[in-house]
Write a structure and sequence with these properties.
Layout lengths: L1 E8 L3 H12 L4 E4 L14 E3 H6 L8 E11 L5 E11 L1 H14 L3 E3 L4 E6 L4 E5 L2 E10 L6 H6 L6 E10 L10 E5 L8 E5 L3 E6 L4 H11 L9 E8 L8 E2 L2 E3 L15 H19 L9 H7 L6 H10 L4 H11 L6 H12 L2 H11 L2 H6 L6
This protein binds flavin-adenine dinucleotide (FAD).
Flavin-adenine dinucleotide binds next to helix 1, strand 3, strand 10, strand 14 and helix 6.
């Protein structure tokens, strides 16, 4: 049996980051990934803020497709405003492969085309059985995405998953001009939102919808073009209920989507996956290399301190997605064509005050001034 200090299930951004951080500090680890090639097929809008990439130390890489200035938010009445928040559209397959290559380069052991099926606790840690062999370790990291096996076996958390779908549209067939912004649409066709992210050669058009017919209806409404043509289609689950109840238990850890760590407002999960992986690796390092027995258990506490895991943000998200059309259209009308500035909010609130129904819906958001003030760059 192959024996390691740490076994990581999953080679997405969370798993590969944990692997290269551990391997770099001399801790023996193995990544078990069911896919033949990490990152493929792509099922992602592929957007990451500059602040996130910078904080992750990943600002410059051949995986960048193009730079963007921020995003536009469209309302049901089709009015929109701009939010300046620089970022990038990446090629997600290349990005995941870059992180995986870092893990290999730093000495992590990697097992592709290995699907973890059964994992048992033993006297010394865990035994992981895959379709191709068995592995033993002291620490187990579940980086196995939204439908985590590690969670099901050792935590049994409850989480709400939303279904998302995305078409990749060839630019030659469509006339969409995003003018270097990512476009988010509050459209009555979804309870959440749709996105249109323009890459160099294609357009990622997706939404939080169960049904692909609804997405096609949205695309026909908002992306001018001829016949409906596409280069690719994917479906995936996104955790939308925020950090799970428990993400550490007796040397078993959940990181990234497995821990429910997408941002509750935007559902972006690349950066939160990377950050939680680093915190997890440092907490294992604390025990293995520095002899601090209490270190692994500090992982959960450290993640809960992050803004993306805060109750404030969960609260804001709940309200963002329960605003009635009247409030959304009022907001769209007010900010139409403008570049969002926090100082405009006061004037907006004064106007809304004259409309008690609308004002009532804004109170929970105003309680989250932090979000509007300095957290926008950390939402995605
Ligand atoms: C349609 C869609 C669009 C999105 N757009 C964006 C976006 O624009 N920006 C953003 O920041 N986030 C986006 N997200 C969210 C983002 O993709 C995830 O949050 C991110 O991938 C989480 O990384 P992870 O490493 O935790 O999990 P994953 O990337 O899901 O990786 C988990 C890995 O574990 C492997 N695995 C699972 N089970 C096993 C097993 N039993 N044995 C072996 N291997 C296993 C899987 O094959 C996979 O490779 C989007 C998600 C979806 C579905």
């Amino acid at each position: 049996m192959n024996n390691f200090d740490v076994i990581i299930i999953g080679a997405g951004p969370a798993g590969s980051t944990a692997a290269y951080t551990l391997a770099k500090s001399g801790i023996s680890c193995a990544v078990i990934e069911q896919k033949k090639t990490p990152g493929k097929p792509v099922c992602c809008g592929e957007a990451v803020s500059e602040a996130s990439l910078k904080a992750a130390g990943l600002l410059h890489g051949s995986y960048v497709d193009r730079k963007i200035n921020g995003f536009r938010i469209f309302f049901p009445n089709n009015k929109h405003f701009f939010v300046n928040s620089p970022g990038y559209i990446i090629n997600r397959d290349k990005f995941d492969q870059y992180l995986f290559a870092l893990a290999v380069k730093n000495g992590a052991n990697t097992f592709l085309s290995h699907k973890a099926g059964t994992i048992k606790r033993t006297d010394t840690g865990f035994e992981v059985l895959t379709n191709k062999g068995s592995f033993a370790c002291k620490y187990l990291i579940g980086a196995d995405g939204p439908e985590s096996l590690v969670d099901a076996l050792f935590f049994n958390n409850r989480a709400v998953l939303a279904q998302a779908a995305q078409y990749k549209l060839p630019k030659t067939n469509y006339h969409y001009n995003s003018t270097d912004y990512l476009d988010f649409y509050y459209d009555t066709l979804s309870n959440y939102y749709f996105w249109i992210f323009e890459k160099t050669r294609e357009i990622n058009a997706g939404g939080l919808v169960k049904n692909k017919e609804v997405l096609i209806e949205f695309i026909k409404k908002h992306v001018p073009g001829g016949d409906f043509k596409y280069k690719g289609f994917c479906r995936g689950s996104i955790p939308i209920s925020g950090i799970k109840d428990k993400i550490f238990s007796q040397n078993a850890f959940l990181i990234g989507d497995a821990a429910g760590l997408t941002n509750p407002v935007t559902f972006a999960g690349i950066y939160t996956a990377i950050l939680s992986a680093k915190i997890c690796a440092y907490s294992i390092y604390g025990e293995v290399k520095m002899g601090k027995k209490e270190s692994p258990a500090l992982y959960e506490k450290a993640v809960r301190k992050q803004y993306f895991a805060s109750n404030d943000l969960k609260y804001a998200a709940k309200h963002c997605f329960s605003l009635p059309q009247e409030v959304l259209d009022f907001t769209g009308e007010y900010f139409s064509g403008r570049h969002f500035k926090t100082k405009d909010v006061l004037a907006f609130v004064k106007l809304a005050f004259k409309h008690p129904v609308i004002f009532g819906y804004l109170i929970p958001l105003l309680k989250n001034r932090k979000l509007l003030k300095d957290k926008i760059n950390h939402l995605w």
